[in-house]
Amino acid sequence: MDHQVSSSQSVISFDKSPASTFKPSHSRNNSTGSSKHSKQARNWEVMEEASSVPGSSLDLSIPGICEGYLMKRRKYPLKGWHKRYFLLERGVLKYSKTQQDVSQRKLHGSLDISMAVMSVNKKSKRIDLDAGDNLYHLKAKSSDIFYIWLTKLSAHRLFRKNEAMSVHRGVLHALSLSQPVVGTMTQQSLSTVMNITWLYSCTGYFNLLPFILHSLLQWLEGSVPITNTDLEMRISMQNLFLEKPKKKSGKVGHSRTLSRVEAMGGMLYSSQLPHTNNSNMAASVQSIPDYVYSQLSNPQVTSPEAKKLHQDICMLSQRVYGSLKSIHEVLTMERERLRQAWTSPDLRQNTSHQLATLCTTLSELDMQSHLTKVHSVSLSSGSTEDSFCTVCTDQRTPSMARHSRRAPSVAESTAEYFDASEVIMCETSSEAEASDESGLSDITTTSNSEPEEGHFIAYLPFLSSNIPGRRTTLPSPCADNSHIGIMTILYNNIGKDLSRVSMPVALNEPLSLLQRLSEELEYSELLDIANNTDDPYQRMVYVAAFSISGYAWASWRNRYKPFNPVLGETYENHREDRGFYYISEQVSHHPPISACHAESENFTFWQDQRWKNKFWGKSVEIISSGLVNVTLPKYGDHYEWNKAVTCIHNVLSQQRWLEHYGEVVIRNTKSDECTCKMTFVKSRYWSSESSKNEIQGVVLDRAGEVVHRFGGFWHEGIFCDTMATPTCIWKPNVQPDDHFQYYGFSRYARELNEMTADLEVLLPPTDARFRPDQKLLEEGKVAEADKKKDQVEEKQRERRKEMAKRGEEHIPRFFRNVLDEAGREVWLYNGTYWKIRQDPGFSKTENLNLW
Ligand SMILES: CC(C)CCC[C@@H](C)[C@H]1CC[C@H]2[C@@H]3CC=C4C[C@@H](O)CC[C@]4(C)[C@H]3CC[C@]12C
Fold this sequence. Notes:
Layout: E1 5-7, E2 24-27, H1 35-42, E3 44-47, E4 66-73, E5 81-89, E6 92-96, H2 99-103, E7 109-112, E8 117-121, E9 126-130, E10 135-139, H3 143-176, H4 186-202, H5 208-220, H6 228-238, H7 254-268, H8 288-296, H9 304-343, H10 345-350, H11 353-379, E11 391-392, H12 398-403, H13 412-427, H14 440-446, E12 455-456, H15 486-492, E13 508-512, H16 513-518, H17 525-530, H18 536-549, E14 561-563, E15 570-575, E16 580-588, E17 593-600, E18 604-615, E19 620-624, E20 628-632, E21 637-641, E22 645-649, E23 657-668, E24 674-680, E25 694-701, E26 706-713, E27 717-720, E28 727-730, H19 747-752, H20 757-760, H21 772-778, H22 782-806, E29 815-819, E30 825-829, H23 833-838
Parallel strand pairs: 13-14
Antiparallel strand pairs: 1-4, 2-3, 3-8, 4-5, 4-10, 5-6, 6-7, 8-9, 9-10, 11-12, 15-16, 16-17, 17-18, 18-19, 18-20, 19-22, 20-21, 21-23, 22-23, 23-24, 24-25, 25-26, 26-27, 27-28, 29-30
Helix pairs in contact: 3-4, 3-6, 3-7, 3-8, 4-7, 4-9, 5-9, 21-22
The chain binds cholesterol (CLR).
GO molecular function: cholesterol binding; sterol transfer activity
Family: Belongs to the OSBP family.
InterPro entries: OSBP_sf, Oxysterol-bd, Oxysterol-bd_CS, PH-like_dom_sf, PH_8, PH_domain
């Protein structure tokens, strides 16, 4: 039955102008707004959540099965479509290669469609289902098939919702049975609540569960009543998922009790309603929720049975709440234990011999030998003094240590600035210098060549060092933002470019995207190593590890978004300890483009970040277009690579999580000797947590033969087993214990927005550290920050209008727009920032007044 839809309902009547059958609610925003895209976006419609009238009787009849072939887009990064056999039954869409596979239950995947946002494109006969964790792109061969599926999918969604709603009404009903006449229902009601609770937790809706329990407690304690609409709203918001009970009888368990719930649900519509003191309740179906509500909101309980029921439910709720809390605590502890096991060398040694060898001995020895090499090479590069940016181990005289440094020799501009900053920095004592942070001794002992000279390389990768003089925490912890209805914001702005939507500041972290992008240099030591690795294939492995390391933040940073930089905003990051100078500028506002450039003795790094987002209903995909570039001066290499797709799953809920997927290819434009291909593996719906965030990569020679193989996880580390000895190439730094209270920031991220007295006089006023709303947020003044943010955005709009009036166009100050060899438009650093900073200084030049 190729491309035919079979349905257990013999005739399906459908309307080709589906307005009568379906309720598309919004057009979908598909991109950041090129005209082609917006045209495409107009063809997309987000199907409204199937809704039933509150209080009305629910149609619980099971819609007919629908099955047949559809085209399904292949899983990212694979391109194209393939034919798959689909079966839609009781609101669950399953698929496999053939009908036979489906009937033999050899499934490729399944999706609860009531959990999914459904968007359709009638023109291209496409149906997209986004269930947050799982995304299906489907296409029908003909309009007829398209409309049949659409009808069926809508019917099944409604069915699932009604089913959930009926259970919910059962709960309300059970709770309402506080009248003496139904006092005998106590046990039943309790087990109903128990089982609903169990079901909710089983289906993973921990977020709904505490709400129900909380509301229960509040109600029982006589404070706030549960409102029916509140619960219903939450259920529909969460797309509540409940398996239809199996109608087996006699077995003790949830299926049996559920039948009881159903029976109760049934009772709601029968004439046996409790009505002792409420004559107007009669048997009116419409007014039942009101009745329940009135009971719930009136905790004046009189009968002893009802009191007992209250107490029982109260105790039970508290117990369930308590045990959930302790489960959560145990899981948190377990996670912490695992984290420590991974990071602590002692525990690592206790794990398998192989791991210990891999992680500890080899990696550290290998890294040390590399770094020794790096350092000796740089020392021997014709300089009498240390040409590396090093930090003095003598903590009593940090400024003296700075004096002993000489300018790096690679870039003239860098060197000029370096000298200038030396003088100024030594004159001003920064608050940072007062810090008594230590941690240097650890490092000195592991560095085998430098300590006698009083120097060491500060960027040993596996040993998170406390650089003296930098803050280790933020001025204020982050405010909880879980109450902010992102759903409302997004849905009110459907069809709009999301980057244009102004969001409340409570959703922000106190960093701008320019600062965020500089985090990609957190592990710049990998490039230092690459620039001192003679073997081109090994070199490529380090470059690859560097490209991966720039994604490591994603496990911690899913609750807040960075500030959208204002046009003309800049950000510099001079890291003496890491030896690089980073500068970035917001060069375009719509579409947003952030250009950045970093330079050190061992590498030059630049990229312009243009990204568009695709909002699928539950998840947002961020697709970056600019290439990342790195040159290594010692070998004359110029590497360039694309970025993986970053997906924010469940963007609307607190179960948000980030994933990177796609193929990344690193090419050396100066030589085709070797190429690197990596796959950021997309997690599969049914795969375990432990296989998430995986990366596999190979380094190929000219003939396409594999020379090195590496792999691992972007949140855990990368190993290469084809080197002389299996080597751990990179491992992320340990997160500070209090990271949850501080936006999930790493040590490195906490330092980015730090303003020191010496910096304050050197930075241009356009630097992100001066952005007032961001500063206020950092200090925890959310309301003030919100107000200020509006002002900053308004000022930007005014500036744009003024310029348009004058017929002027904004010209970025430190980057210029050129075409690269492949004809792509790129933004390159014009080399002026550090020069101006040194002479005449930004205080003596004209700067944009951004805020
Ligand atoms: C609703 C809000 C609060 C949820 C949080 C959204 C966060 C996770 C989003 C908002 C903006 C996003 C960033 C936008 C642009 C880029 C550049 C790209 O090259 C890598 C991903 C990166 C860096 C994104 C990472 C994820 C991100 C930080």
